[in-house]
Design goal:
By secondary structure, the chain is an alpha+beta fold. Helix 3 packs parallel to helix 9.
């Protein structure tokens, strides 16, 4: 990795300072937006029993030493999701959290090992409302900055109507793939997706799973086309790619999961939340078994989170990368330019 000059050098800080000043204005406007809609800001602790149970997310381990000298493994959270859902189970209705999160193996112009996640949840409110909220957040950031969203020569104006595109439509339009033909209520057909990918000259490894091939197509063919000139809401993800989301009542092959894109950059990931603890355990265990196979490690399941799901109301929620939103709203070229004290 190319050495990064210290951010605290006065000349470097002077270059970054306009981005940071605008960050403060955007954050202030976001907080005002939530307060006007009767949301409560919650402060979720970073040290957790489990950092989350997604296969490809990598956490920082933080051993906890007790007064008697014994120790227990703890982790810095990759998202405040589990804590927020416990608060929904406790009775909160509309909450938002703007906290630092930690993810290992992530250092690129769009990724930082420590970053700020903005998450919010609505109890007993529909998934479509959370999608509308998220589109509105892009409009807000653009309005405060006075700029369209930009990234590497691409421009996205969120002031008008967003594009709504199902994952199946996006794969058909941008990759020539009939995704739903590879899915059933029971799962995914790797052979069927591989055959279509080969026909479209999409390269993949012999031992790639259905999910691996899906991700290759998404990253290489679909994502670069999203959020061009206007934001794209990519919705109705395959159920096998939505471990924390409800299955759609209209088609068991898909789930209530969406992502929001601008300039080809993913900014947010949201769900109609799964509240079935039995099904959630099954998904966690399957994902951790795959993580063990791929990376030789697994994270514990937070049993208190599964207990909380038993009383958690129906809800919808979303996680938005605040730093990325500020980057695109200010025209910054790297994520460290919009973080006050970036890791280097």
């Amino acid at each position: 990795m190319t050495p990064v000059s210290p951010w605290w050098r006065p000349d470097i800080h002077a270059d970054r300072r306009p981005f940071l000043m605008m960050r403060g204005r955007i954050v202030g406007a976001i907080r005002d937006w939530f307060r006007a809609k009767d949301f409560l800001e919650v402060d979720c602790g970073a040290l957790q029993v489990s950092p989350g149970n997604e296969t490809h997310l990598h956490a920082f381990k933080a051993p906890l030493v007790n007064p008697d000298g014994s120790s227990e493994d703890r982790y810095l959270h990759t998202s405040p999701e589990f804590a927020c859902k416990k608060l929904l189970a406790a009775g909160e209705k509309r909450i938002f959290s703007m906290v630092h999160c930690f993810r290992n193996r992530e250092r690129t112009p769009l990724h930082a090992p420590e970053f700020t996640m903005l998450e919010w949840y609505r109890a007993n409110e529909p998934y479509e409302q959370i999608i509308a909220d998220t589109v509105g957040m892009l409009k807000l950031a653009s309005r405060v900055s006075g700029n369209a969203l930009t990234w590497r020569g691409k421009t996205c104006d969120p002031s008008g109507e967003a594009e709504y595109l199902s994952v199946a439509e996006a794969f058909s339009r941008h990759a020539g793939i009939d995704l739903l033909a590879t899915l059933s209520a029971e799962g995914a057909d790797r052979k069927a997706l591989a055959a279509q990918a080969e026909a479209q000259d999409i390269a993949f490894a012999k031992d790639d799973s259905w999910s691996d091939i899906f991700s290759r197509i998404l990253v290489e063919k679909v994502e670069p086309q999203l959020g061009q000139s206007r934001p794209t809401v990519l919705f109705e993800y395959p159920a096998v790619e939505a471990a924390l989301a409800r299955v759609s009542p209209k088609d068991p092959r898909i789930a209530e999961r969406f992502e929001l894109y601008a300039c080809g950059v993913e900014l947010a990931n949201g769900f109609g939340e799964l509240t079935d603890p039995v099904e959630q355990r099954r998904r966690f265990e399957a994902d951790m078994a795959l993580k063990q196979k791929l990376y030789g490690e697994r994270y514990p399941i937070d049993e208190t989170f599964l207990e909380a799901l038993e009383t958690m109301p129906e809800a919808s929620g979303v996680a938005l990368g605040l730093d990325r939103l500020v980057m695109l709203a200010t025209g910054a070229g790297r994520i460290d330019q919009v973080i006050w004290t970036p890791f280097n």
